[in-house]
Design brief:
Chain B: Residues 21-263 form the ABC transporter domain. Chain B: Keywords: ATP-binding, Nucleotide-binding, Transport. Chain B: This is Phosphate ABC transporter ATP-binding protein. The complex is a heterotrimer of chains A (267), B (268) and C (320). Chain A has 267 residues and is mostly helical. Helix content of chain A is 76%, strand content 0%. Chain A has helices spanning 2-30, 33-37, 51-81, 86-99, 103-118, 123-148, 151-159, 164-192, 219-227, 232-266. Chain B has helices at 4-15, 59-65, 96-102, 118-127, 134-147, 151-154, 167-179, 197-210, 223-229, 247-252, 257-263; strands spanning 19-30, 33-44, 48-52, 76-84, 87-88, 103-106, 185-189, 215-219, 232-237, 240-246. In chain B, helix 4 crosses helix 5 (134-147) and helix 7 (167-179) packs parallel to helix 8. Chain B is built from eleven helices and ten strands. Chain B is an alpha/beta fold. Chain C is mostly helical. Chain C contains twelve helices and two strands. Chain C starts with 14 loop residues before the first helix and ends with a helix. Helix content of chain C is 74%, strand content 1%. Chain C has helices at residues 15-56, 59-62, 76-107, 110-125, 128-155, 170-194, 198-206, 211-240, 243-248, 266-273, 280-313, 316-319; strands spanning 66-67, 72-73. Chains in contact: A-B, A-C, B-C. At the A-C interface, helix 1, helix 3, helix 4, helix 5 and helix 6 of A face helix 1, helix 3, helix 4, helix 5 and helix 6 of C.
């Protein structure tokens, strides 16, 4: 049994290995200063970069954070502080279900909610689609971390004559803050790589854009567009973009994991 | 009949003092568990009153009924009255938050706020309530740390985390934190049970010192501690008040057989 | 000294309890956002898809013509493509995933468990579009030049493995989906297997069971509902996975017996055609397809969660 299951493990990890090998092997050679500093070139032209796409992804993630973090953190605090409430049970289940809703459906939702009434694509719509996807992740991690805050800390505050709500807001949440931030980082890293919800919300843009009401470029969108294009140079740039994206995502995951393990130890 | 004079003397001893808290027929439950079965006792002002008894006798629960902390446990209930200045703190309309500001509490395990510095911990009761200017805060923090006999040890590192202190120092930090909001009563729930003997001694001395200004109620399972530190002692067993009187009398001439059994170590 | 300082008089703070109530309402509102959003998605999709729902009704699911020019829309080929690619993915991912889960929960020495678990998580963290990129340039050529010719020469008599080896198509989509869903099976199954009380294993061991027998008789039956839940979770992922599939499946709305043939899935058609859809009926038809995907994935996820939650809690006998 050991041999078979060990073989399964190697087989499952093989794609990870191959993806990383090809990413680094192909992407590294395509990475250069231009890639980070220049706008995309015209179709078929060699050169150009993804600077606007990287900026666009940052813009989208910030918007998503504005939508998703407050709802996630405060809602997660509710789940932790009133674990037995009917609403908590419903929300916990709904959050798990929502985590599994396909990202393309979130894109449709943002399209109907924002693009249709506004009559054009926008960074806002993309940010909302990603922000909604962020909610369940942040909510469930916040719940878990806030629950870990020792009861004695709440008691200490309540016994000082601090009202319950201030105890939660000023003592419990700050005590859990490091863990909550870790959870938020992992959640942001996850949505940073999402493409499907952006196709018909943020839409993509070949130029700079900082206006949230206009379409914006995004790194995953650009990778997709270049990957399915017929041009070799764009393929190279797609690999470079993928390497950049994966480096960011993996780095955040590794740092978050390290931080989380340190927090556990320091308790 | 032989006991009568003793009883009378005890009653007299209590009557001599101003009352800080008057508990009347206090019952407490955890869901269906009847933890306190009608406690009636008078806690004198600016004295140390010890509550002793075997574990599970309800002594901590009783303490937590005095500042309305008991009701925070899900499924917990209280009945009866706890009077301060003649007013029942359980009257509808009394804000438990205000009760807890008048009746502070120190817990079994030191529980400084982990994300706060020493200074912030002491000031927390005021800053979180949005009170106190910078200058008065500085003053109050120093006063409170002095009162908790911690000032000299920490005055040079007020910006260090509260959790960087030793266990005994942390407990005195918690005492300073409780004192900073100027409570009239300080409840101490086995405050030294997690500490080494030297730190224990310091906490005991502190309790005696503090009683010059405020009322102290201390729960302990350690009879020597009760004997050393308190003016009055109450013995609880199975949620009932078995005996209550001046500490010296209770330990030397217990009136009840059950008290005698307990203090001589025959059970518990 | 304490007594000399004026007590903080009866600062009337009626806000204390009102504050508690208001704060609780605020938190509850945020928590309620999750079920509300799920409801809002349903309402939004139904309203936007209404022209198509009204026009095609249930015929939508049994019609295999997808002709934007003629205004005829049927999703049968997309449903077929979605189901078959997902089934193929699960066929590969279930045995592999369970193998890894058994390895992680029953066999691995502690020092190896954390890194292996971490790598499996990393696999799940790689963005779909990156997996798709790898699919186009690495996996698909390998499928075309190696896997499909081998399958064809060995099993070519079966209709499943007939036709020219194109690389892109159902087989490549199934493979890439299996890579993407296997981490979910591993993570959840490992968790539920670890939740099996060690007493169960010891009992089997005491009866003289070998390692594999112990796993088979004591662990797997106990963890069964959780494992089925894990499979449903993976299924929901596979059904909704968009980018990687779009990039390798070939995007031809057809129903072919051969796994070598190109196909199309619901998420892929939405991804590809939504921005090109010019008239309202076309958009509504795509949203209708998305609505179907939403309802199916929510149902599958809900079922999965019920099973997993039950397994993670363990049988009630143990709890009491």
């Amino acid at each position: 049994m050991a041999v078979i299951t060990c073989g399964c493990t190697l087989l499952v990890l093989a794609p990870l290995f191959f993806v990383l090998v090809f990413l680094v092997g192909t992407g590294w050679s395509a990475l250069n200063w231009d890639f980070f500093t220049r706008l995309p070139g015209a179709a078929g032209e060699t050169g150009g970069g993804m600077t606007n796409a990287i900026a666009g992804t940052l813009l989208l993630i910030s918007l998503a954070g504005v939508v998703g973090i407050p709802i996630g953190v405060l809602g997660g605090t509710f789940l932790a502080e009133y674990p037995a409430a009917r609403l908590s049970q419903v929300t916990r289940f709904a959050a798990d279900v929502m985590n599994g809703i396909p990202s393309i459906v979130m894109g449709l939702f943002a399209y109907v909610l924002i693009v249709l009434p506004m009559r054009h694509f926008s960074a806002l719509a993309g940010g909302v689609a990603l922000g909604v996807m962020l909610i369940p992740t942040v909510m469930r991690t916040t719940e878990e971390i806030v629950r870990l805050v020792p009861h004695s800390v709440r008691e200490a505050s309540l016994a000082l004559g601090i009202p319950q709500w201030k105890t939660t807001l000023r003592v419990v949440i700050p005590t859990a803050a490091a863990g909550i931030v870790t959870g938020i980082m992992v959640g942001l890293a996850r949505i940073a790589g999402e493409t499907a919800p952006l196709l018909f919300t943020a839409f993509g843009n070949r130029f700079w854009n900082w206006n949230v009401l206009r379409p914006t470029a995004a790194l995953p969108l650009q990778i997709f567009a270049y990957a399915i294009s017929p041009f070799d140079d764009w393929h190279r740039q797609a690999w470079a973009g993928a390497l950049t994206l994966v480096s960011i995502v993996l780095m955040v995951n590794i740092v978050a994991r390290y931080a989380a393990s340190r927090q556990v130890k320091s308790r | 009949m032989m006991e009568r004079p003793v009883v009378e003397r005890r009653a007299a001893a209590l009557i001599d003092h101003t009352t800080a808290i008057q508990a009347e027929n206090v019952h407490a439950w955890f869901d269906r568990l009847h933890a306190l079965r009608g406690i009636t006792m008078t806690i004198p002002e600016r004295k140390v009153t010890a509550v002793i008894g075997p574990s599970g006798c309800g002594k901590s629960t009783f303490l937590r009924c005095l500042n309305r902390m008991h009701e925070l446990v899900p499924g917990a209930r209280v009945s009866g009255a706890v009077l301060m200045d003649g007013r029942d703190i359980y009257t509808p309309g009394v804000d438990p938050v205000q009760v807890r500001r008048r009746v502070g509490m120190v817990f079994q395990k030191p529980n400084p706020f982990p994300t706060m510095t020493i200074y912030e911990n002491v000031a927390a009761g005021l800053t979180l309530a949005g009170e106190g200017s910078r200058k008065t805060l500085d003053e109050i923090v120093e006063q409170s740390l002095r009162a908790a006999a911690l000032w000299d040890e920490v005055k040079d590192r007020l910006r260090k985390p509260g959790t960087s202190l030793s266990g005994g120092q942390q407990q005195r930090l918690c005492i300073a934190r409780a004192l900073a909001v100027s409570p009239e009563v300080l409840l101490m729930d086995e405050p030294a049970s997690a500490l080494d003997p030297a730190s224990t001694l310091r906490i005991e001395e502190l309790a005696r010192d503090l009683a010059k200004d405020i009322t102290i109620v201390i729960v302990t399972h350690n009879m020597q501690q009760a004997a050393r530190v308190s003016d009055f002692t109450a013995f609880l067993l199975d949620g009932e008040l078995v005996e209550y009187g001046p500490t010296n009398d209770l330990f030397t001439k217990p009136r009840e057989r059950r008290t005698e059994d307990y203090i001589t170590g025959r059970f518990g | 000294m304490i007594a000399t300082r004026p007590a903080p008089g009866p600062v009337e703070e009626p806000s204390a309890r009102t504050g508690d109530r208001q704060f609780r309402v605020l938190l509850a509102t945020m928590a309620a956002a999750v079920p509300v959003v799920i409801g809002a998605i349903l309402v939004a999709l139904i309203s936007a898809a209404w022209p198509a729902i009204h026009r095609f009704g249930a015929h939508f699911f049994v019609t295999s013509t997808w002709d934007p020019v003629a205004g005829t829309f049927g999703v049968l080929p997309f449903i077929y493509g979605t189901l078959v690619s997902s089934a193929l993915a699960l066929l590969l991912a279930i045995p592999l995933g369970l193998g890894v889960a058994i390895f992680l929960s029953e066999l691995t020495p502690g020092w190896l468990r954390t890194p292996v678990g971490f790598f499996v998580e990393l696999l799940a963290a790689i963005p779909s579009v990156v997996i798709g990129l790898w699919g186009i340039f690495v996996l698909v050529p390998w499928v075309r030049t190696t896997l499909e010719p081998v399958l064809k020469s060995a099993l070519g008599f079966l209709p499943l493995f007939s036709g020219p080896p194109l690389g892109i198509g159902m087989l490549a989509a199934g493979l890439i989906l299996s890579v993407m869903v296997v981490p979910f099976i591993v993570a959840v199954s490992t968790e539920v297997m670890r939740a099996v009380p060690s007493g169960q294993r010891e009992a089997a061991r005491a009866l003289g069971a070998t390692g594999w027998e112990t796993t088979r008789t004591a662990v797997l039956p106990y963890a069964r509902s959780g494992i089925i839940g894990a499979i449903f979770l993976a299924l929901a992922r596979a059904l909704g996975e968009t980018m990687a599939v779009t990039m390798v499946i070939g995007n031809v709305p057809q129903i072919k017996a051969s796994l070598f043939a190109p196909a199309y899935t619901i998420p892929a058609v939405i991804a590809n055609e939504f921005t090109e859809a010019t008239d309202d009926l076309y958009v509504a038809a795509l949203i209708y397809a998305g609505l179907v995907l939403f309802i199916v994935t929510v149902a599958v996820n809900a079922l999965a969660r019920l099973l997993v939650n039950r397994a993670a809690r363990g049988p009630s006998v143990i709890r009491e």
